[in-house]
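User: Structure tokens for this complex, please. No commentary.
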Amino acid sequence: MSIADAGGPGSLPSQTNVAPALAAAFETLRVRQEGAVLFAEIAAPPMNLLGPPLVRDLVSLIQQAETDESLKVLVFRSADPDYFIPHVDVTKIKEYREEAAKLVGEPSIGLLFRHLSASRLVSIAQIEGRVRAAGSEFVLACDMRFAARGSAIFSQPEPAFGLVPGGGGAQHLVRLMGRARALEVMLSAQDYDAELAERYGWINRALPASALGDFVKSLAHRIAKFPASGLIAVKKRANAIALAPVEDFRRDSDLFGKGSSKPEPQRRFADALKRGFQTRAGEMDLARLLGELDDN
Amino acid sequence: MSIADAGGPGSLPSQTNVAPALAAAFETLRVRQEGAVLFAEIAAPPMNLLGPPLVRDLVSLIQQAETDESLKVLVFRSADPDYFIPHVDVTKIKEYREEAAKLVGEPSIGLLFRHLSASRLVSIAQIEGRVRAAGSEFVLACDMRFAARGSAIFSQPEPAFGLVPGGGGAQHLVRLMGRARALEVMLSAQDYDAELAERYGWINRALPASALGDFVKSLAHRIAKFPASGLIAVKKRANAIALAPVEDFRRDSDLFGKGSSKPEPQRRFADALKRGFQTRAGEMDLARLLGELDDN
Amino acid sequence: MSIADAGGPGSLPSQTNVAPALAAAFETLRVRQEGAVLFAEIAAPPMNLLGPPLVRDLVSLIQQAETDESLKVLVFRSADPDYFIPHVDVTKIKEYREEAAKLVGEPSIGLLFRHLSASRLVSIAQIEGRVRAAGSEFVLACDMRFAARGSAIFSQPEPAFGLVPGGGGAQHLVRLMGRARALEVMLSAQDYDAELAERYGWINRALPASALGDFVKSLAHRIAKFPASGLIAVKKRANAIALAPVEDFRRDSDLFGKGSSKPEPQRRFADALKRGFQTRAGEMDLARLLGELDDN
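Assistant:
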């Protein structure tokens, strides 16, 4: 089966080049190639939690796309209008981290995400719905991110559980929006809409939901027309300035990994799960849920 | 006397936890504790100049609050609607610096302010009125800052006297708003309103004056519900990225301290004082006053 | 001939101090001194390309202005309402680079621009018309930049030719607007208007075209009234934080210089020239032209 066929309802065979090297079917991704652009739609019901299957598929997608010389640009979007990636599955931390290790040699999604930032491929996140915690960190790892007004919601709420962001959130947010706004975002564990996320520099731009898809598609194809050598060289120069060192990603990853098994975060995870955490309904207004967690 | 009683008209005994460790009365601060949040209102008439009494009280407040395990968040606001902190008392530079040395071991308010940024406590500035020079540097040292539209005014005007900001202003502004805007702000010695301060990243957000107090109170209490361990860990990670090293604060502090006793700054201080500098009326439009200083 | 006389129609002898040290006439610059402010208007018909004559004049201007103790502030503007500086003359890369070497000892306009940023002089760009590629890099090297709404257009499009920006564009843009927006700007090779350039931090502020000239003039004269010692000291402190090291400018310059002679960029330059590149008409909508370049 080709990558063109691996997709769901969104695939457009007439515009599609078959990429034999990208022939794997994915459990949680619908992929479609148009020229040098690969569109990957996240479809991991019921709410696109970043658990072992989605991490396994992201590893596989990145590995295959990087070795496919016909590809220059990766676009990520969601099949679920309410959830892009809400966060990791907190009941399977050990398992999803082991999936990440298959690409980066260490059980760390922070290092997996950093691998994407350092990749020769240009990555663009087209955001509708909620990106919180590792979801925020995934889009922060993409080279660019554009979000739908009235739909996209952003949060980096690990401190509500007594934890630091483990996937590079602090590294990106502090560099993008400065110390004060990054501390506000993380320490408040609040939800931010697309407009405020744009003002804070969390995303490149907030766009009308009706225009977002065409904007991203057009941008992706434009970039894909330019020589690969220049794209790669510019990414290298930008990363040398603004992509945090591996050691910092590893340190955050370790702090989250070790911290998450301690009594206080475990107690708060359990309390949250009782209140609807990791359910579609319960996370529509996660900020409120987090504010109601028992603080004793 | 308890900290609850040390406050002025704003104290609300019914919501207040008495904190025996914070029992000192302050000459220039009205403090009130609500749960894990300590509200400190600056009340140093006639205009909240940062002179020896206010520095002494800030040192004392920070020392006591840091050792009080019941506290997580400090909120600073002003009892004076026109002045939050206008700047240091330029007639008492040696004296206020010596007060700072009692906490940080060196006569430098830059190092005092940096101590606050590095503290385990989360600090929030609720800004109405003027924050200029060291006033700006104090709110920049807070972890977050929110300002009232139509009321708050910002300035970092030391170059008008031939000096660099001595309390970390350059360190924070360049990192928050980039080289060009930080140079504009400092070299122009102009006043900036809350909207422009927000666009430049000087503050987290500008809010309607009527909404500011409730917003900050709600944010402070929300953060205070989260585990201390996470708040501390996130601050550490953010500071490792974006808080300038001690040596840079010390260097700026030395440049200001040595520079301020030289003939040109002394002459310009004297000229400014004759024109109303360090008076409530004279500093309502300080930007104009600075533009009129004799440039010979 | 004095610098006052070297100017064109914009010179105002009645307000002008003659500066004997700045006596050179320029081929592509009209200069006028008002007190401690030197206004330099770029007038290099037909479209202000950065070729050998303009680089030679900029070298000469900077050299002379730096040694003239009566000057504190340099203001750059354009005599052409459509073009400030569009980019380098790609048919004379070797030649213009050799002009830069006369000031900085190495054939690199990146190092020339960095010299301006590190100069004791405060530089302000007043931008109407197009600043693309090296034009963008020139205004990024100025200490501040203000642009006319509805007129100014920004672009950093070297990747459309398979190249990295050679004059420090990546160094400045990544630090000013963060990794994601800088990558978008460079990899898309798109045009950005003044409003979006302001939101992204590319410029200090977008102003109504009718107000821009007075705003910049007033700001320049205000800064020029302040003691030189403070201006210099503040620039030094800001540069220590946010001006990229010489090695990084040199590296970008080398990547551009060596890259530009390779087959793929040469082929794309040739294709672009056939389509109107380096002509007034052809570059009114350069973004479209770049998107139409043959990608084989």
